[in-house]
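Task card 7
Instruction: Convert sequence to structure tokens.
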Amino acid sequence: MRKKGFTLIELLVVIAIIAVLMGILMPSLQRAREQGKRAACLNSLRQLGLAWIMYADENDDKIVNGEAFANGDGTAPMGTGALHNRERYWTGDDCAPGYQQGEQLAQEVQLKAIRAGALFPYVNDTRLYQCPTGVRGEMRTYSIVDSMNGLARPETYSGSVGTRVGQTVLWVKKRMEITQPGPTYRLVFLDEGRVTPDSYAVYYTQATWWDPPHVRHGDGTNVCYADGRSSYWKWNAVETIDVGKQPNPAHQFRPTTPEGIEDLQKMQKAVWGRLGY
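Output:
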């Protein structure tokens, strides 16, 4: 009697079918995994945004010092000088001197810096400071933008207060100053995907990026507004995406295409409330 079984040809056909199905399913699985990580990132940004609002509610409407301290020891002291006098940094020193070349502080030093920050009493889970798709070994991947009591830039402040252009206050110290445009349109946090010092910078008076346009979560980035709402931005220009995907993205990048300029101006308007040119 002959034994029943698969022939070699039949086995090869089955294997080929499985390979084709895997090729079809894997991109869908990867997209689903990325969407899950994007959702987790948006939730973390929302938690930080609500903490930012709570801080202002408990401090006579004054918003937190938006700079990230940089001194190499994981501390978050009080600020000095006219702009941030006696204002504790929102997060402490978690950035290595050679961060642009991939240098990192020890993870425990980075965690110590987060715990020392002014927002930690409001968001005391260190995992919420880190995007799941951030650079490996970075404990904080989110930054506050310059305009929200961050590092003040030329022509956006005078003395110790923000410059007012019409009804728009460029550099904000109190939530009540966010009126035109309102909190729904002014950025506070964004996902850089890595730890950086100071605050996120973009020019006000010229059509140039200052810090690079970080590309996260599939050709875009996650952001959080002054009303606590988090959202996903999609970049339009190939040049924006190409620069943002570099291992060490270029600073002072000047876009040359209409789509690239549109990406830049979207960021400038959301940070400063308007264009300065």
